[in-house]
Design a protein that fits this description.
The chain has about 350 residues and is of the alpha+beta class. Helix content is about 35%, strand content about 20%. It folds into 3 domains: about 120 residues, Rossmann fold (3-Layer(aba) Sandwich); about 140 residues, D-amino Acid Aminotransferase, Chain A, domain 1, CATH 3.30.470.20; about 60 residues, Dna Ligase, domain 1 (2-Layer Sandwich), CATH 3.30.1490. The longest helix has 17 residues.
Length: about 350
């Protein structure tokens, strides 16, 4: 098949996305597909291709910190222009499938999916509505809670000028909290906060009115994640942390976390987490033609809470979804082909 892999983009997960795109392109070429690797936010969007079986695909590395994106507006302008006209849009329309290896920002919040839907282009992963539902953590948690899934108490807060809201102070008075952007991925800017002064310091790093934060209790128990591909639930992964939260550095730097698949937990608990992941997948509108990865954190008593649902989880060879696929007996190229096959329906 003729496949365009979209990666890079304008989000803080740009580096991860480039690494995912390169890994996906290698797997597709290995499977005999013709591949063009495209970063729609780059000055020269076509990174490689058309790649034929036997061709080499370059490696992309993920840095210790997310890119600063001081030029994010320029990246967005290029991305919008590329996806709405000109040679990139023609490439997308000429492909039999577009493989989305974008993470975060417009690539995961439904923007790109909506543009591709309007252009009549077939693509991998969930549609724009499900992506938008999952991307905003506050609204996603409300949907999951209404569907009967276990969620944490939370307060949404847009810092800027005034005092810390009373509801936030009450949460903090009850114990440590986790503070994170309500709409971001790869655990960018996730903080454990133990005091009001620390909270004020974290909030001061946010430009007034720029980012809405979500504050929720810090859960002291174990952390798990479960992938769903189509209608199939993958083995549970436990994330054993050397840090208090699974932030960007812990995710992408060797040795910061140990990921165990399948998790060493009782069978009935694994089944419970898998059932919750499938219910979360369905509650947010993910169908049998898409995939997701749901993250869980347990409290001190071992009871799981659904933290978030990822619409386009990382696809580097070291990412969590490929690890879960390995636990199910799939190779990395098997996983990529299955994601392609879902888009064909």
């Amino acid at each position: 098949m003729r496949v365009v892999v979209l990666c890079g983009g304008e989000s803080p997960e740009r580096d991860v996305s480039l690494a995912s795109g390169g890994s996906v392109a290698r797997a597709l070429v290995e499977r005999g597909h013709e591949v063009v690797l495209v970063d729609p936010a780059a000055g020269v969007p076509v990174l490689a291709g058309p790649l034929q079986p036997g061709d080499e695909v370059g490696e992309f590395t993920v840095g210790k910190e997310p890119p600063s994106l001081s030029d994010r507006q320029q990246l967005r302008s290029r991305m919008h222009a590329a996806l709405t006209g000109g040679p990139v849009l023609e490439l997308l329309r000429g492909a039999e499938t577009v493989f989305l290896a974008l993470h975060g920002g417009w690539g995961e919040d439904g923007h790109v999916q909506a543009l591709l839907e309007m252009a009549g282009v077939r693509f991998t992963g969930a549609g724009s509505a499900a992506c938008a539902a999952a991307w905003h953590k506050g609204r996603a948690q409300a949907v999951l809670g209404a569907a009967g899934l276990p969620t944490a108490q939370r307060v949404l807060w847009r810092p800027g000028g005034g005092d810390v809201p009373l509801r936030v102070k009450r949460l903090l008075a009850a114990g440590p909290v986790v503070v994170k952007p309500v709409a971001d991925g790869s655990s960018v800017s996730v903080h454990r906060v133990d005091s009001l002064s620390q909270l004020v310091q974290v909030a001061a790093e946010v430009r007034p009115g720029d980012i809405e934060l979500m504050v929720e209790p810090f859960l002291a128990g174990r952390e798990f994640t479960v992938g769903v591909v189509g209608g199939e639930v993958l083995p549970v992964i436990e994330i054993e942390l050397t840090t208090s939260v699974f932030d960007y550095a812990a995710k992408y730097q060797p040795g910061a976390a140990r990921e165990v698949c399948p998790a060493r937990i009782p069978t009935d608990f694994a089944s419970q987490l898998q059932e919750l992941a499938l219910r979360a997948h369905q509650a947010l509108g993910f169908g049998s033609d898409s995939y997701s990865r749901t993250d869980f954190r347990c409290d001190a008593d071992g009871e799981p809470t659904c933290i978030e649902v990822n619409a386009l989880p990382g696809l580097t060879t070291a990412s969590l979804l490929p690890l879960a696929a390995t636990g199910a007996g799939w190779t990395y190229p098997d996983l990529v082909q299955r994601l392609m096959d879902l888009a064909a329906h």
